[in-house]
Structure formats: C-alpha cells, structure tokens
C-alpha cells in the first residue's frame, strides 16, 4: 500500500481507499500517540487503535424532498456514531455539497478527541448531507430539514446522540430539524444543541466556538508573556465561527484585516471594526449574500475573488501577527504555510476542523510558531453545547456571564491539559501531540474499563 508508515493507517487506507480526509486525521493521531502505546503495551494488546478508528455505527440514508418548482430532489444523509465510551455521541451536522462519508468520518473521529478534552461527558459523532442550502428558499430548506429528520430521528435522542450545527447548519436549520423531531417523537427534549434561546438554547452557544478559539489563543500568548492587544490577525471564513472570533479579537484589542467565503476574500487594512462586523453579519446571516458585498459599503477595502489557477490562497500572504483559519478543512496548503511563516505570523490557532495540511503543520512546528489544532482550539462550541444539554436536563437557563465564565475556564483547562500531556510525553510546546495524547488516553481507558463492546 502506497504512502502508509503505519500498519493501522495501511489497514484503513486498504479498507476505504477514497476516504482521504479520514486517513489524514487518523495518520496524525496514530503518529502522535505512539509514545503512549510504547509506554503502555496493554493498549496494543487490546487493539485500541483498530477499535477507535472503526465507527461504532454508520448510518446512511436517502433524503427525498421537493423544490419550490415541484421538482423532486434526492440527497444523501449521514450520521457517523464514532465513539460513546465517555458519553452519548455528540457532534454537528454539516450541509454542504462536498459532504461524503470520508469527510463525515474524519469530523466524527476528530470530535471524539475534542469532546474528551472538554472534560464533559460526551462521546463523538458527526453527520450531514451533500445538500447545498445556498440559493434555496426558506421553504426548501425547511422541507429538506424535515425529510432529513424523518429518518435521523430514529437514531438520536438526548441520552443517545445529540447533533448540533456546523457548516451550512445554523439557527434556521436547527429550528426546522427540532420542530420535526418534536412532531415525530411527541417529546420536547434536548436532542439538538444550538437551539434558539426561547426554546431551550443556551446563552453564548452561538458565540462559543469563535470566543473559545480566542480564549485559547490568549492562553498560548500568555504562556510567552504576550497578549492579543494590537496584534494584526488574518481570519478566513465569514460564518458563525469567523464572526464571533472577530468580535472577541476586537474585545481584546486586536485587529482583523481579512475575512472570506468560498468565492473570495476581503482585505481591509484599517481593520474590521464593530460597525463593519455588524454589516458582515447582516450580509451573511440576514441577506445570505457574499463577502464581496463588503467593499460596496467600505470601498477602502479590497475584494479578491478566488483564482483557481493559483496554487496558494493570497489571504495567507499578508503580513500579520496571527492567523485564524475558520472556513474549512485543508484550506492552508504547504505554500500557504510557507507564506505565513515568511510573513512573520507567530500564532496559528484553528477555528475550522483540520484546516491545515500535514506538511504545513510540520512547518509551523519546525519554525516554533504557537500552533493550536482545531480539535483543541475550537472545542468551546461543543463545550457550551454540553452546557446546553446540562441546562436542558435541569430545565434551567444560566446567565450569560456564568456560561462565558465556564467557557473561559474550559478553554484554559484544555490549554493546560495539552501543555501537560506534551511535557509528560517529551514533546513540550507541541499542542498537536498534547491534544491527541490527552484526548486519546481518556477515551481508550474508558473503552478498556467497559470491556470488548
Ligand atoms: P458557516 O457555515 O457558518 O460558515 C462557513 C464559512 O466558511 C463560510 O464563510 C463559507 O463560505 C466558508 N467555506 C465553507 N466551505 C468552504 C470552502 N470549501 N472553501 C472556502 N470557504 C468555505 O460554518 P461555521 O462557521 O460554523 O464553521 C466553520 C468551520 O468551523 C468548519 O470547519 C466547522 O467544522 C468548524 N467548527 C464549527 C463549529 C461551530 O460551532 N459552528 C464548532 C467547531 C468547529 P460560503 O458562505 O461561501 O459557503
């Protein structure tokens, strides 16, 4: 088998050769947990790697729905229930045309480690569909969500599997999904997180991923006696994570000079201030428009459309102190990584899941950047989802300050956990290894406690 350094990775590539993102996510974990396996031979004896890389359950289903023009459309739905050793499956739903089983498996696999790091009792899962909400009417999105839930409802539940949002699944979609679940099951229960405040949502959940990434970045900087004040930041994406990340960077005195979507990016040398951010939120969340519209209102900014002939993304070529990729997987390639290093970026903190290709990660580590992988840095979203589940089960609603304080505390503790695990296994300052090792040890110990199931 080409290109596999490890027996498990060979096995996985052989079984599902087309699932490239899943191979990538597994390879990184297998590489970094090797010292743990070397120190504790019982893990190999109990085949923990073989077990943790095989989903407990994969659900794939047909989603037929009708467009406004009375045409029938058929999409494919997925839910990968990866690991329930430490709690019910938990992880978002992604609606995007690129979705396939390999992408959902990589996201579910990463989610297992991320959820373990939060210290909350949540296993890992992920789901979604190749449905594209872009350009669809609200009525079409509603009919799609209802058709999706018509199948998904039999596999999920507040103590079994609790989905949430991800790319293409925001408050609107969660509302339609929840409404259908309630109708089918005749129960009002915390089966989804990211709900609206009036019917079971948690304060700070919309903000949590973006805020959490910034709290994590602040912890990394604090470890070097530094802060985000007056730092210039490159941000990709302009969705949920990018918007609230920008808000928190502003709160802490930093400056965001780029935002993007899948069509292109804006560069605003003066910085995206609060007024401009509110305008971005209007464009993206209300008008469901494109980031290019930013320059209509702020002509000093420059819009650059995606150029498919380039083998790098010019967004990552601007001089800055920090970079926060918040769009999608593998959006920073080796050339982008090289550009970030050459342009003096000292911190890369991932809002998106696996946005950096392995060769660029190696560059960041080699050049001693402060580099945090998404599974640690963006865990604030699922952490507050866990708090939403706790509030739902108690039929309580905690105040904003309390949830924010808990989020800060969790991000601080994830940071410390990564540092401690890196120190303990001889890779100090390596947050990738630290996150993988700490997440892994907790989950596999729970698996061993529970026997061969
Ligand atoms: P949104 O759908 O709100 O926003 C996604 C943003 O990324 C949009 O600007 C979108 O542009 C852009 N984007 C999506 N796909 C691509 C692509 N293939 N190429 C370029 N740009 C793209 O999603 P979120 O903000 O919720 O999610 C962003 C990332 O953060 C994802 O990796 C997600 O898995 C991760 N994440 C999200 C969490 C959450 O709580 N929401 C929690 C943890 C991680 P366009 O509008 O053109 O599609």
Radius of gyration in whole Å, from Cα?
Answer: 21 Å
User: How many beta-strand elements?
Assistant: 13
Report the top-level CATH class of the largest domain.
Alpha Beta
Identify the CATH homologous superfamily of the largest domain: Leucine Dehydrogenase, chain A, domain 1
Mean pLDDT: 97
Q: Report how far apart the termini are.
A: 30 Å
Dominant shape:
globular
Assign a percent range to the helix content: 40-55%
Strand order of the largest sheet: 1-2-4-3-5
Number of helices, where a helix is a run of at least 4 consecutive DSSP H or I residues: 18
* Total separate domains: 2
Work out the strand percent. Answer: 5-15%
Structural class: alpha/beta
* Uncertain ranges: none
Largest sheet data: 5 strands, mixed
Question: Ions, cofactors, ligands: which are bound?
Answer: NADPH dihydro-nicotinamide-adenine-dinucleotide phosphate
CATH architecture call of the largest domain: 3-Layer(aba) Sandwich
CATH level-3 fold name of the largest domain: Rossmann fold
């Amino acid at each position: 088998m080409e290109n596999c350094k490890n027996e498990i990775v060979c096995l996985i590539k052989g079984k599902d050769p087309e699932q490239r993102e899943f191979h990538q996510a597994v390879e990184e974990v297998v590489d970094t947990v090797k010292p743990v396996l070397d120190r504790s031979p019982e893990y190999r004896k109990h085949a923990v790697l073989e077990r943790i890389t095989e989903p407990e359950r994969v659900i794939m289903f047909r989603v037929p729905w009708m467009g406004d023009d009375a045409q029938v459309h058929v999409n494919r739905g997925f839910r990968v229930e990866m690991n329930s050793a430490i709690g019910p499956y938990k992880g978002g739903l992604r609606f995007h045309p690129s979705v396939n089983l390999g992408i959902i498996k990589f996201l579910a696999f990463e989610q297992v480690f991320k959820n373990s790091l939060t210290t909350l009792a949540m296993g890992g899962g992920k789901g979604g569909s190749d449905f594209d909400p872009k350009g669809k009417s609200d009525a079409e999105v509603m009919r799609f969500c209802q058709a999706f839930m018509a199948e998904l409802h039999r596999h999920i539940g507040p103590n079994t599997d609790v989905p949430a949002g991800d790319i293409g699944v925001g408050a609107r979609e969660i509302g339609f999904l929840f409404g259908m679940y309630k109708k089918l099951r005749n129960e009002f229960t915390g089966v989804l997180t990211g709900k609206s405040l009036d019917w079971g949502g948690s304060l700070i959940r919309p903000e949590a991923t973006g805020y959490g990434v910034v709290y994590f970045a602040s912890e990394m900087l604090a470890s070097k006696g530094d802060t985000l004040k007056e730092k210039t930041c490159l941000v990709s994406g302009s969705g949920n994570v990018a918007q609230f990340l920008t808000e928190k960077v502003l709160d802490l005195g930093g400056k965001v000079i780029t935002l993007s979507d899948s069509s292109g990016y804006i560069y605003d040398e003066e910085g995206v201030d609060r007024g401009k951010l509110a305008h971005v939120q209007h464009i993206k969340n209300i008008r469901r428009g494109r980031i290019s519209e930013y320059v209509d209102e702020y002509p000093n900014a420059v819009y650059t459309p995606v150029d498919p002939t380039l083998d790098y993304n010019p967004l990552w070529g601007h001089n800055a102190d920090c970079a926060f990729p918040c769009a999608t997987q593998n959006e920073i390639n080796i050339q982008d990584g090289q550009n970030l290093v050459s342009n003096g970026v000292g911190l890369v903190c991932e809002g998106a899941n696996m946005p950096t290709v392995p060769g660029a990660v190696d560059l960041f580590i080699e050049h001693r950047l402060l580099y945090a992988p998404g599974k640690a840095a963006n865990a604030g979203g699922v952490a507050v989802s866990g708090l939403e589940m706790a509030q739902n089960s108690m039929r309580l609603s905690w105040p904003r300050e309390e949830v924010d304080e808990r989020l800060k505390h969790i991000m601080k503790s994830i940071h410390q956990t990564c540092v401690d695990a890196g120190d303990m296994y001889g890779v100090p300052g390596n947050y990738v290894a630290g996150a993988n090792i700490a997440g892994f040890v907790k989950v596999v110990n729970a698996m061993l406690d529970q026997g061969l199931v």
